[in-house]
Design goal:
Blueprint lengths: L1 H8 L3 H12 L4 H21 L5 H24 L1 E2 L2 E2 L6 H11 L2 H10 L13 H26 L2 H6 L1 H27 L1
Antiparallel strand pairs: 1-2
InterPro entries: Heliorhodopsin (IPR041113)
Keywords: Membrane, Transmembrane, Transmembrane helix
């Protein structure tokens, strides 16, 4: 839904010029809005599917997801000036983004390992589709990090084709992983 909203906003006349101006500068603020909202929603979905239901656990999951997305945005912001890449790139925000993101996973793992008979799962045995949604969440973030890292390293088509290629790759990764999660959740959880 956030991806649809971010994409739709780019067609509204007052936002359209802003969108293309951002692309010329080597950034896309709408992409980061989408990434922030969708990564928080995706990680909260996975957490609740794994039986995390208390607010004291869901708030840190949302906070770590948001923090990771913000640091990822910061990585892109500090490494471009007027659409030109700074070489060598300053990788600390990316490293911290990955570190913050990994703080989400102990919540999922502990919930899976320590689950009891009080939730809807039988002795911690989760259906395969739930591991699929967790894998999609992991793949979503890992591929987006790799996409940005390849761009800022100037590797292959990311270096030759520029920011538009990063945008196309981001949209493809986002569409495939979010669609897979949506279909897995809809088909097996409803």
């Amino acid at each position: 839904t956030s991806g649809t909203l971010a994409t739709t906003i780019t067609f509204v006349p007052c936002f359209k010029s802003c969108y293309f101006n951002q692309l010329e500068k080597g950034r896309n603020i709408f992409k980061w809005f989408d990434f922030c909202v969708s990564s928080v929603a995706l990680n909260l979905l996975v957490a609740t599917q794994f039986g995390v239901g208390d607010l004291n656990s869901l708030i840190p999951v949302a906070g770590c997801s948001f923090g990771s997305a913000f640091l990822f945005y910061l990585y892109e912001s500090v490494n471009t000036v007027q659409g030109v890449l700074i070489q060598p790139s300053f990788k600390s925000p990316l490293v911290f983004s990955v570190m913050v993101w990994f703080f989400i996973w102990p919540t999922f793992i502990l919930s899976a390992v320590l689950s009891d008979n009080t939730n809807r799962f039988d002795f911690g045995q989760f259906p395969a589709w739930m591991y699929g949604t967790a894998s999609c969440a992991l793949l979503y973030s890992a591929l987006l990090w790799l996409n940005e890292l390849l761009y800022f390293s100037g590797c292959g088509p990311w270096g030759r084709r520029g920011y538009e290629y990063v945008e196309k790759s981001h949209n493809f990764i986002s569409f495939v992983t979010k669609s897979t999660v949506a279909w897995l959740t809809y088909a097996f959880d409803v």
